[in-house]
Write a structure and sequence with these properties.
The complex is a heterodimer of chains A (about 270) and B (about 210). Chain A contains ten helices and eight strands. With about 270 residues, chain A is of the alpha/beta class. Chain A has two domains: about 80 residues; about 140 residues, Alpha-Beta Barrel (TIM Barrel). Chain A has an eight-stranded parallel β-barrel with strand order 1-2-3-4-5-6-7-8, surrounded by six helices. The two termini of chain A are about 20 Å apart. Chain B has a five-stranded parallel beta sheet with strand order 2-1-3-4-5, sandwiched between helices. Chain B has two domains: about 80 residues, Methionine synthase domain (Methyltransferase, Methionine Synthase (B12-binding Domains), Chain A, domain 1, Orthogonal Bundle), CATH 1.10.1240.10; about 120 residues, Cobalamin-binding domain (Rossmann fold). In chain B, helix 5 links the parallel strand 1 and strand 2. Chain B is about 55% helix and about 10% strand. Chain B has about 210 residues and is of the alpha/beta class. Classes of the chains: A alpha/beta (about 270), B alpha/beta (about 210). At the A-B interface, loops of A face helix 4 of B.
């Protein structure tokens, strides 16, 4: 399971303030904590700043990579911000995200094809959000075909099937899960990725819902996820689900985690 | 809600069967359609919105109550004659340009409708000119805008500016909402009101128009 740490996002008040004040110590601390908790990529987002997004995103790239030796997930829909951030990025970044929405695909393509990178392909339709499994798979397939045509290898594409709240429509959980399964089956080698928090909108005890949904996603074949890696319960859920699905030989990782005191639920 | 208390309670609970039966018996007993609507259904939905805002009930329960009200409305509809039913106000609503998210906007539209407002829903990805054109056509009391992305929020001031240029701004109240939107942002872009959820959208709209 590839883990993208989501904590450095300007829509969070503390991060927004830190970016504004160029508080490198705070940002590097959040980056370090996520890296130590097991993140493979650190997401960086300065989207709330709009006019200054280019500068702030570049600053985040340099600040975070000055601290941790990990690739970043560059989280922006601004072509200029992405291409400038990519120039400053060491190694292969993940770009979050491209979609088929009018204007978005064409405007982001030059950046994405300018250097090797991983790409999150969001199953957003051209004019509406997908609701059914079929709509998700259709948009996902189209994105995969367009991106591979542009020379991006299947293994570097992460299809995000879009998670929508079960509170509004109880079929939304399965719609995402079955889309994950179908996309992974139809395109062997491709990745699927999703965030978790949308699933629980409008309901109480959201963290409980999120982590159970994560276990189900893993069972349906999800290969990457955007989450808070410092949330121990989430990380324990991944470890346990993978063992139960036969992906942890001799239950080694699970037992290791126990013996190292990492199986705590707190 | 005294004389329609059983009806109102059934709507709050989302008990369609009881609510429909209560509506029918109120009609049979000769109650005024407007009274059943105001003191039964709308009073119940006000309660639902209030409980939701306070975190006492959750989205599925709110949806269930709205569905219950809708079923009751089917019984009342044949009695509505032109001008018979008074609306609390006309609300033009939509998700702003560049944004395809509709869940929050739909919840707000649903609760406003349940509270007795007339809703004209423009859907998603609505450009400023469409807000303007429709506002000129239907002359709403309120223009409501929703955005879920920080990147699409700037469509809100653009729409307000377009309303201003078209000479419509002075005739409508502008309400905004959505996950990244704040009270502070509403003040910055000179919107008239900000609502944090579907329940408070109803009370804010009533405040704006001075209705109860």
């Amino acid at each position: 399971m590839i883990i993208v740490g989501e904590q450095i996002n300007a829509s969070r008040k503390s991060i927004e303030e830190a970016i504004e004040k160029r508080d490198a110590a705070f940002i590097t601390k959040v980056a370090r904590e996520q890296a130590e908790a097991g993140a493979h990529y650190i997401d960086v987002n300065a989207g709330t700043f709009l006019d200054q997004e280019v500068d702030y995103l570049c600053w985040l790239v340099e600040t975070v990579q000055g601290e941790v030796d990990l690739p970043l997930c560059l989280d922006s829909s601004n072509p200029k911000a992405l291409s400038e951030a990519m120039k400053r990025h060491k190694g292969e970044p993940m770009i979050n995200s491209i979609s088929l929405e009018k204007e978005r695909f064409g405007s982001l393509l030059p950046a994405i094809t300018s250097q090797p990178c991983h790409v999150v392909a969001l199953c957003m339709g051209q004019t509406s959000m997908p609701t059914t499994v079929e709509e998700r798979v259709e948009v996902g397939s189209k994105l995969i075909k367009e991106l591979t045509k542009e020379g991006i290898p299947l293994e570097k594409i992460y299809v995000d099937p879009l998670v929508q709240p079960v509170s509004v429509d109880t079929s939304m959980g399965l719609a995402t899960l079955e889309a994950i399964h179908k996309i992974m089956n139809d395109f062997p080698g491709v990745n699927t990725i999703c965030g978790l928090s949308n699933i629980s909108f409008g309901l109480p005890e959201r963290r409980l819902i999120n982590r159970n949904f994560l276990a189900l996603c893993i069972a349906y074949g999800l290969s990457a996820t955007i989450l808070d890696p410092t949330d121990k319960q989430l990380m324990v859920t991944i470890l346990t689900a993978e063992m139960l699905l036969g992906r942890d030989e001799y239950c080694e990782n699970f037992i290791d985690a126990y013996q190292n005191g990492r199986l705590t639920e707190k | 809600m005294s004389e329609f208390q059983t009806l109102a309670e059934a709507v709050v609970k989302g008990d369609i069967k009881t609510a429909v039966a209560e509506t029918q018996s109120a009609l049979d007993a000769g109650s005024k359609v407007q009274s059943i609507l105001d003191k039964g259904l709308i009073a119940a939905m006000d309660e639902v919105g209030d409980r939701y805002s306070k975190g006492l009930i959750f989205v599925p329960q709110m949806l269930r109550s709205a569905k219950t009200m809708k079923e009751c409305m089917k019984l009342l509809q044949p009695f509505f004659r032109e001008g018979d039913i008074t609306s609390k106000g006309k609300v033009l609503i939509g998700t702003v340009k560049g944004d395809l998210h509709d869940i929050g906007k739909n919840l707000v539209a649903m609760m406003m409708e349940g509270a007795g407002f007339e809703i004209i829903d423009l859907g998603v990805d609505v450009p400023p000119e469409k807000f303007v054109q429709k506002a000129q056509e239907v002359e709403p009391d309120i223009v409501g805008m929703s955005a879920l992305l920080s990147t699409t929020m700037p469509s809100m001031p653009k729409t307000i500016e377009a309303l201003l240029k078209a000479g419509v701004r002075g005739k409508v109240k502008v309400m905004i909402g959505g996950a990244p939107v704040t009270e502070k942002y509403a003040q910055e872009i000179k919107a008239d009101s900000y609502a944090s959820d579907a329940g408070s959208a109803v009370s804010k709209a009533k405040e704006l128009l001075g209705v109860s």
